[in-house]
Amino acid sequence: MLSLAAVLLLLLPVASVASSPFKEELKTCHPDCTKFGNCNGETGQCDCPFGLTGPSCQDRLFPACHVSKDPGTLPHYGTWYPKNCECIKQLRDWPGSCPDYLHYEGDMAPYLPPCFYDILLQQKLLCYSYKGRAPAEQLSDSPALDDPAVEWFRARARPAMDLQPLAPADRPKASECEHKTPDGGQWRPLSECPDRCNNRGWCQIQGGNYQGRHTDPNERWCNCHGYFEGKSCEVADPSHCYRNCSGVGECVGGWCHCKPGYWGHGCTRTKAYTSAVGWRPNHAKIKIYVYDMPTHVVHRREVNDQWSLIDLMYNSELEFTDKLLGDWGVRTENPWEAALFYVPTYTYWFTGNVGHPYFLIQHVTKWLQDNSPFFNLTGGRNHILWATNDRGVCKNQMAPPEMQHSIKMVHFGQAPPVPYAQRSSGAKPSMQAILDSLQAAQQGRFTGFGPFGPMDLVEEGEICIRPEKDVVAPNYLHNDWVKPESYDKVWLTTFQPDGTRVVKRKPDAAPRKTTLYFGGFTKPQMSYSQGVRQTIHKMFGPRGKYNPEGANARPDYFIAGPMGGGAIEGMKTAKFCLAPMGAGWGIRLAEAMVSGCVPVIVQDHVYQAHWDILPFDEFSIRIGRNELHQLVEILDDVTPQQLVELQAGVERYHRAFFWDAHWGGLAYNYTLSALKRRAISLWSANYRRHTRRLQHEREALEQY
Ligand SMILES: *[C@@H]1O[C@H](CO)[C@@H](O)[C@H](O)[C@H]1NC(C)=O
Ligand SMILES: *[C@@H]1O[C@H](CO)[C@@H](O)[C@H](O)[C@H]1NC(C)=O
Ligand SMILES: *[C@@H]1O[C@H](CO)[C@@H](O)[C@H](O)[C@H]1NC(C)=O
């Protein structure tokens, strides 16, 4: 018996391994590549940090943006302190700065031209030039202010390069009116700072940064460029890069410089493959391949020379990517067997919270089309890109099909009930219909709501996701919500012998005396929160039905303006917590869940994070705007037993809404499940087809 079983066990795996069509095969690079770059064993190219290029990363894209001619220095291209005028010119002339294929097809053209570098959008930037030096010899090395070899200009890069010489009286002076940095400090020649800031920062008097302020007028200090630290910016701390560069690299300008043998995001790559059968995704175990796009396409940008410290609530792209990079249960280095393709882009670093990644998506899509053998096979339908900005990919509605097809990971899941594929009929989106209905909409659209204006309706009509293919993921919650000092006030965590975490409601937690909690900002425009915040403030305000001084007062409802950190405690003692939108996505669903408070979601047409993988009816209450005026009656109707059941649902699922895995967060796991469902949707041919789909795409799919 035993030997038969052993024979069977031996036979099965041998049979499948022997037939594997994939072979490990590493390419080699220029022998000097790894000095400043990483040898990419898949492409045989030397991967370089942004601004460096060539077979050994010693060629410079913008030589005049460097501080010195030493090899391996990085260019700096922000607007915080003056650069050499030639640096602005070189950035402007580089085709990757404002690529000519960027083109917006929507109705309302974006306000800014399609350029990725802020310095090109400035009107009167101070810059300097060394007299009589060839362009190749110009450097952004912060010369002495009275250096007689230096001339000063005001520069504008677009539409045409324009340099206005500064009269001697207007030049920055060493004495009275030195050049101010925007933090109130004074910019100084690099020579005055310790070790010239190791060519990784600039020299200042006073002002300050995220590490604190400098008040001593005699002190010269180094304000370090992105991701460098130390008195003279001598530290390239790997904790600012993905996966701490896996312990085998340095974080250089937000990019891992790895030891030989490693490459890629966080130095996580060591293997590359070829396939004898082309693309053959594994259907038994869905796997994800992660692209390492060249840094000249996308990189973790500095914003205006500085550390780009983002509001942590937009941090889920980094969290998810960092976890995926180390999750070899799903990740594969072999693209030929991957079902899904993940494209890390640092979107938020290009858009901020109010910008839109339209041009970034277009730029990345073009690169994928031109360079990846996998993108065209499905028209990009299995490629994954993030957009954590407030309104996600709402502006993509009119984008060309190749930009639309990819899976977008967003926080803002608005999908109004209007047909998506209007573009294919050549019709503009329902703008005219919106304007037609404006009259009707201004009054009495929903009981108790104020009038809506045209822009409010336009924004509400924007189609921001296609639910069958895009993924709505939870936002990142600031540590204050989930660190044990806070979390343990309402949750009791125990561990089973095998290490499994068990989280229950804490029996002796403070009683939940508030019936409904909402502390939040509002704005006059009804596009903000779809009018919900305005209406709730009105209902519970001085002239509202539940006026705290009136006959219907409900002191058990807490409705107020922004509470800052107070909300962390306030939600912990409430039964229900209102979860409206903000300018785009709302943060309060996640906040309510981790606080053990049953969310009351009022967001018409907006798919919530994890809508497709969690039973929202078990832990939340959903209310339409047309019912908001009856909120009190609806919540009064909830019986104590029903509340207990909803709270049990919050207990079961709240961990899906936060990311910090070391504190029990499961947002990564649930988001990954949602992504895997998209692979199944694709194989089920559930993705809506575009009628005007390009012929070559159809052919590619038929071949597959
Ligand atoms: C990276 O290192 C920092 C400390 O330097 C640590 O706090 C963090 O957990 C590390 N991250 C990973 C993914 O190892
Ligand atoms: C993918 O399709 C685009 C659009 O037709 C085309 O320009 C590109 O060359 C194709 N890419 C590859 C790798 O064949
Ligand atoms: C969540 O995902 C991580 C990474 O794959 C894994 O280590 C962990 O066990 C998962 N947790 C659960 C509860 O599935």
TrEMBL record:
<feature type="signal peptide">
    <location>
        <begin position="1"/>
        <end position="19"/>
    </location>
</feature>
<dbReference type="InterPro" id="IPR004263">
    <property type="entry name" value="Exostosin"/>
</dbReference>
<dbReference type="GO" id="GO:0000139">
    <property type="term" value="C:Golgi membrane"/>
</dbReference>
<dbReference type="GO" id="GO:0016757">
    <property type="term" value="F:glycosyltransferase activity"/>
</dbReference>
<comment type="similarity">
    <text>Belongs to the glycosyltransferase 47 family.</text>
</comment>
<keyword id="KW-1015">Disulfide bond</keyword>
<protein>
    <recommendedName>
        <fullName>EGF-like domain-containing protein</fullName>
    </recommendedName>
</protein>
<feature type="disulfide bond">
    <location>
        <begin position="48"/>
        <end position="57"/>
    </location>
</feature>
<dbReference type="Pfam" id="PF03016">
    <property type="entry name" value="Exostosin_GT47"/>
</dbReference>
<keyword id="KW-0732">Signal</keyword>
<keyword id="KW-0333">Golgi apparatus</keyword>
<dbReference type="InterPro" id="IPR000742">
    <property type="entry name" value="EGF"/>
</dbReference>
<feature type="disulfide bond">
    <location>
        <begin position="29"/>
        <end position="39"/>
    </location>
</feature>
<dbReference type="InterPro" id="IPR040911">
    <property type="entry name" value="Exostosin_GT47"/>
</dbReference>
<feature type="domain" description="EGF-like">
    <location>
        <begin position="25"/>
        <end position="58"/>
    </location>
</feature>
<dbReference type="InterPro" id="IPR002049">
    <property type="entry name" value="LE_dom"/>
</dbReference>
<keyword id="KW-0245">EGF-like domain</keyword>
